[in-house]
Amino acid sequence: MADLRNEINRRRTFAIISHPDAGKTTLTEKFLLYGGAIQTAGSVKGKQTDKHAVSDWMELEKQRGISVTSSVMQFEYEGYCINILDTPGHQDFSEDTYRTLMAADSVVMVIDAAKGIEPQTRKLFKVVAARNIPIFTFINKLDREARDPFDLMDELETEFGIGTYPMNWPISCGQTFKGVYDREKKCILTFSTSHGGRERLSAIECDIADREKLDGVIGTDLADELCEQVDLLDGAGNDFDMDAVRSGKLSPVFFGSALNNFGIEPFLESFLKMTTSPLVRQTISGEVDPFDEHFSAFVFKIQANMNKAHRDRIAFMRICSGRFQRGKEYLHVRQGKMIKLSQPQQMMAQEREMVEEAYAGDIIGVFDPGIFSIGDTICEPPLKVQFKGIPTFAPEHFAVIEQIDSMKRKQFQKGMEQIAEEGAIQIFFLPDSGMERVIVGVVGMLQFDVLKFRMQSEYGVGYSRMDLPHDQIRYIEKCPCDPKNLTLSGDTRRVVDVRGNSLLIFPGSWAINWALENNQGLELSEFNRW
Ligand code: G4P
Q1: Buried b (16+ CB within 10 A) or exposed e, 371-404
Q2: Which of 248, 313, 436, 471 sees the fewest Cβ atoms within 10 Å?
Q3: Fold for domain 14-69+89-274?
Q4: DSSP summary character for residue 109
C-alpha cells in the first residue's frame, strides 16, 4: 500500500475561476497536456461539440450542450498529484459553483489581459476571499492587445483588497509581444507564436543589468521600458512574502498566453512550489490533520438523476484526512450509522474511473441512495468529527412556482422539498400561503432549468413559473412591529423560510435602504451564512 504521508504530501487541490472566455478551459487543457493526461488540445471541453468533461450523466446536459455540474480532474505532473476543480461559466452558474470552492485548497484566477476583472470573477473572488485561501493570478492573452500591466495590478489591489506580486513581467503585448521577464530567475522567456505542443521553452538568461545583451534580445526601446518598469516594481511594488501568499493576502501574478502555450510551465512550477499539500480543516470540535491515518471527508455537492429509473444520485466528497479504501465501512456522522461508500469514482482527465484508494486532497464521487446532504461528514472511527457547514449563498433570482395539477399536490410538495434539501434550489413561502405556491431562489438561472427537468422526470409534475424582479434577500433580524405591518416599497415582499424565519426580498439595493429609512428600529442581516 502506498505511503500515506508521501501520497498526501504530493497532493495539490485547486479550483480555477474566471469570467467566461478569459481562457480557463484553454489553461486547464494545457495543464493536462503537460501532465500527459491528454494527448491533444481541444479535448477537455468542446463547447459546441459533444465532448464534455463529465457530462453524459444528465440528459439536460446533453440537451443544452453544457456541463451543468462543476467537474473535477486529476492528473500527475512532476511527482505531484493534482486535482483541478472546474467552476462552470455564467450560463451554467449555480450554487454548486460556489460550493466547489469549499473543496479547494487554493485558487487560480484567470484574467483576460484586455479586460481585467469581470463580473463572474468578482462574484467568485468574494467567496474565495472569505476563506483566506491562496489565490494565484494568471493574466492571459498577452499575444493580443492588453491593458497596461500596472493598471491591471492596481485594479486587482483596489477592487479585491489584496496585494499583488508579479512573478514575471510582460515585455509589450499583442503584435509586439516579446515574452516575459522572470523576476526570480532573472531571465527572459521569449515568445513565439509558432511555439505549440509540449516542448519546453528555453529561457534566455539575461540579467537586465546586462544592457548589451538585453538590447540584443528585445531591442533597445523595449529594453528601456522593461528596465524602467522592473525598477518601479522592485522599488514601489510589494515585497514577496510567502506567509501572505499562503493566507490569501498576496496574490502571485503571472503573465502569459494559454492558447500559445506560453508561460504555462513556469506558472505550474512556481505554483506547485508555493501551494501546500492539504492543510488542517476546521471541525465543530477542533481541527483535523490531513495526515491523520483515519479517513474523513465532507460532502460538498450532490448530483442527482444519474439513473432515472432509480432516482439515484452521486455525492461528491472532499477527503480531508487519511486514506479512503473501497469496500471499507465508514461512519455517516449525522445519521450515526456505519455505511459502505459504494461505486466510488474519480475523474482522471476526462475518464471516470472506479477508485480503490484515495487520499486527503482528493475528491471522490460515491453512489448516494438518498442518505447524504450537503455538508455531511463521513469518517473512520474512532475519529468522529463534523466539518463546519458549507455556507449558504444568497439567491439572486427568484420566481413564483405554482403547481398546475391539483391531483399531484403531494408529488409537487415532495419534489420541491427534496430538491431544496439537496441544495439544488432554495425555497421560501409567502406568509399565509399554502405549499401549492413556492418562491424559489437561485444564484444562477440554470438552476430553474434543472428544477423543471427534475420535477418532470423524477416526480412527474409540471408547474408554472413566474419570474420575479427581485435580486436581493435579507433576514429580518429585529422588527419594530408585526412584520405584516412594515412599511415597504411596492415591490418588496416578505417571505418565510423552511425554518419559519422571516425574510424580505427586494428589487434592488435602493429598496433595502427605503425599508430601513421608513421603519425605525428595523434591522436586516445578510443572507450569506458562513
Ligand atoms: P473559458 O473557458 O474561460 O470560457 O475560455 P476558453 O478557454 O474557452 O477561451 C475563450 C476563447 O479565448 C477561445 O477562443 C480561446 O481559444 C481564446 N483564448 C484562450 N487563451 C488565449 C490566448 O492566450 N490568446 C488568445 N489570443 N486567445 C486565447 P474562441 O474563439 O472563443 O474558441 P475556440 O474556437 O478557439 O475554441
Answers
A1: ebbbbbbbbbeebebbbeebbbbebbbbbbbebe
A2: 436
A3: Rossmann fold (3.40.50)
A4: E
Residue 91 Cα to ligand 1 midpoint, Å, equals: 17
Atom of ligand 1 nearest to the CA of 256: 23
Which tens digit of pLDDT belongs to each residue from 296-326? 999 998 877 655 555 567 888 999 999 999 9
CATH of domain 281-379: 3.40.50.300
* pTM across the whole model: 0.86
Atom from ligand 1 closest to the CA of residue 28: 7
Whether 332 lines ligand 1, by a CB cut-off of 6 Å, is no
Nearest alpha carbon to residue 81 among 364, 270, 326, 359: 359
CA of 262, closest atom in ligand 1: 23
pLDDT in tens, 327-375: 899 999 999 999 998 778 776 555 667 888 999 999 998 888 888 888 9
Residue 20, ligand 1, Cβ within 6 A: yes
Res. 423 pLDDT band, cuts 50 70 90: confident
Quote the pLDDT of residue 65. Answer: 39
Q: Are strands 203-205 and 323-325 parallel, antiparallel or unpaired?
A: unpaired
pLDDT tens for 243-278 read: 999 999 999 999 999 998 889 988 999 999 999 999
- Does 313 contact ligand 1 (Cβ within 6 A)? no
Domain boundaries along the sequence of the chain: 14-69+89-274, 281-379, 397-526
Residue (of 271, 303, 264) closest to 88 by Cα position: 303
Q: Which atom of ligand 1 is nearest to the CA of 46?
A: 36
Cell digits for 195? 511555439
Q: Do 14-69+89-274 and 397-526 share a fold?
A: no
**Which residue has its alpha carbon closest to ligand 1 atom 25?**
141
Does residue 239 register a pLDDT over 90? yes
Q: Is the CB of 436 under 6 A from ligand 1?
A: no
For ligand 1, is residue 18 a contact (CB within 6 Å)?
A: yes
Candidates 24, 26, 40, 70: which one to mutate for ligand 1, based on the most atoms within 8 Å of Cβ? 26
What would the mean pLDDT of 106-114 be, rounded to a whole number?
97
223 lines ligand 1 (CB under 6 A): no
306 vs 75: CA distance, rounded Å = 25
Q: Cβ contacts of residue 488 below 8 Å, gap of 6+?
A: 494, 504, 511, 514, 515, 518
